[in-house]
């Protein structure tokens, strides 16, 4: 997985994360007790370095990334909608490769099966880090084979962030995603 370690926080990554965020626009960190309570309640362990970041550095920031700011751990984007299914973080995120469902007439599944699969992409095994607007959400995968990776999920499809997936030159994972943003690189700079 490109050297990404979702179980241990690299001190250099934490330093880069501290440097990337404007301290004045950060929400106070949650602390370890609150992070562990959140994890226990949902049956997950947040991937590093995000876990240490929200416990010790910053629980959300108005300055981003993404464009509309990094959401606090327990919040959802304002445009997410109240009529959506319950999010289940302990159920594995179902994808390991991009899926462009808009315009995919070749999918052999029934429309109900496709809708259920899309619902799982949006609501299983991830936390929502924030939005770039227009229904483009950034998710941190917390359960499943892609744990620790960042995915961009929108009405058109879902794609992982990281150079090995072909859409960007950025490194995978939360630290790579933030570093790419802090360098003022466009998200999809390899297309």
Automatic annotation (TrEMBL):
A Pfam family per the record: SMI1_KNR4
Domain Knr4/Smi1-like residues, every copy: 33-153
Protein name: Knr4/Smi1-like domain-containing protein
């Amino acid at each position: 997985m490109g050297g990404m370690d979702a179980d241990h926080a690299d001190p250099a990554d934490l330093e880069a994360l501290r440097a990337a965020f404007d301290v004045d626009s950060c929400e106070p960190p949650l602390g370890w007790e609150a992070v562990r309570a959140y994890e226990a309640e949902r049956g997950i362990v947040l991937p590093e370095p995000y876990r240490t970041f929200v416990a010790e550095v910053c629980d959300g920031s108005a300055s981003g990334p993404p464009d509309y700011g990094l959401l606090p751990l327990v919040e959802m984007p304002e445009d997410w909608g109240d009529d959506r299914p319950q999010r289940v973080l302990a159920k594995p995120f179902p994808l390991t490769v991009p899926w462009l469902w808009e315009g995919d007439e070749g999918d052999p599944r029934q429309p109900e099966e496709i809708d259920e699969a899309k619902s799982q992409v949006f609501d299983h095994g991830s936390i929502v880090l924030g939005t770039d607007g227009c229904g483009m959400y950034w998710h941190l995968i917390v359960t499943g084979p892609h744990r620790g990776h960042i995915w961009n999920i929108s009405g058109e499809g879902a794609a992982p962030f990281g150079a090995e997936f072909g859409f960007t030159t950025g490194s995978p994972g939360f630290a790579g995603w933030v570093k790419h943003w802090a360098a003022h690189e466009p998200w999809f700079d390899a297309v």
